[in-house]
Write a structure and sequence with these properties.
The protein is mainly alpha-helical. It has eight helices and six strands. The N and C termini lie close together (10 Å).
Length: 285
């Protein structure tokens, strides 16, 4: 292999790592984030490496990035459609505080949509990590108007979690449309804030700070925008009076689920991506 050819391939490998790590490619020191091992402890997957060359060769060509954006956009729409259905399926959680000496138990209601929607934050954070904030924002702008239509159609067809028949679409439902607008606004605001926060923090060596922070602020914005737009002074007296309290409880539960389930899932998926990238690029060295 000629020295120029080897240099180009070595450059490509180093740039691949720099893209995932989100570091300045002109710097010489790069750290791979730690991953979750079987025991659950955090261990680094690679020790400190130093690369002296300037990295300017993209690891993904335009066609590959285009396909990735399309598939990720479909994934976002799928999660939005599923969440608009599952948000109509409630469940109750009761904390047995009386066993700890409290006077009463604590109960609250949530929906299965709380467990499905955070998948979008997971996908967005991984997109920012691998492709950058620009492509993550592109996905949001591609998805937002189809998401509005999907939110309305799913909410009308499956009102109260029961299939209402396609004839339900022939009549415009202003209450459902308001909820669809709320879902649309919450998605755009929450995801854009998620991208901003994650993009600012992704250069930190501690891998979990960026996804935890972005999910915390993104979910906060998403929840507040949705409940305020959907139920502030709405036709439903109960929701109009209690939307703030219900939204706060919903946010706390989403935050708990996100930190306990989706942040570790982010670490595991990121580790898989890094390992595959190492194998693919090492094969060309």
């Amino acid at each position: 292999m000629s020295s120029n050819k080897f240099h180009r391939k070595n450059e490509k490998f180093c740039h691949a790592i720099s893209l995932i790590l989100s570091c300045n490619p002109n710097k010489s020191a790069y750290y791979l984030p730690p991953h979750l091992n079987i025991s659950g402890s955090l261990t680094p997957i690679l020790s400190l490496k130093r690369y002296k060359m300037k990295l300017n060769t993209p690891i993904f060509n335009a066609q590959q990035k285009y396909r990735a954006v399309i598939w990720l956009s479909f994934f976002h729409i799928l999660i939005i459609a599923a969440s608009n259905y599952f948000v109509q399926v409630p469940f109750e959680i009761t904390l047995k505080l009386t066993a700890l000496g409290a006077a009463n138990d604590f109960s609250f209601h949530s929906t299965w949509g709380t467990l499905t929607f955070p998948f979008i934050f997971l996908a967005t954070d991984l997109t920012v990590r691998v492709f950058g904030a620009k492509d993550a924002r592109k996905i949001i702008f591609v998805v937002m108007f189809p998401a509005l239509i999907v939110s309305y159609v799913v909410s009308v067809l499956f009102s109260e979690s029961q299939f209402q028949g396609f004839n339900a679409l022939t009549q415009f439902n202003i209450f459902v449309f308001r909820i669809a607008i709320a879902s649309f606004a919450a998605y755009v605001v929450g995801q854009l804030l998620d991208v901003i926060v994650f993009n600012r923090l992704r250069q930190l060596k501690t891998w979990w700070i960026a996804p935890t922070s972005s999910m915390t602020f993104g979910s906060m914005a998403d929840t507040f925008v949705f409940f305020s737009v959907a139920f502030y002074e709405s036709a439903d007296p109960f929701m109009a009076e209690h939307w703030a309290q219900l939204g706060f409880v919903d946010y706390l539960f989403k935050l708990f689920v996100g930190i306990m389930l989706f942040v570790p899932a982010y670490g595991i998926v990121l580790n898989i991506i890094l390992r595959k990238l190492q194998k693919l690029t090492a094969a060309h060295l």
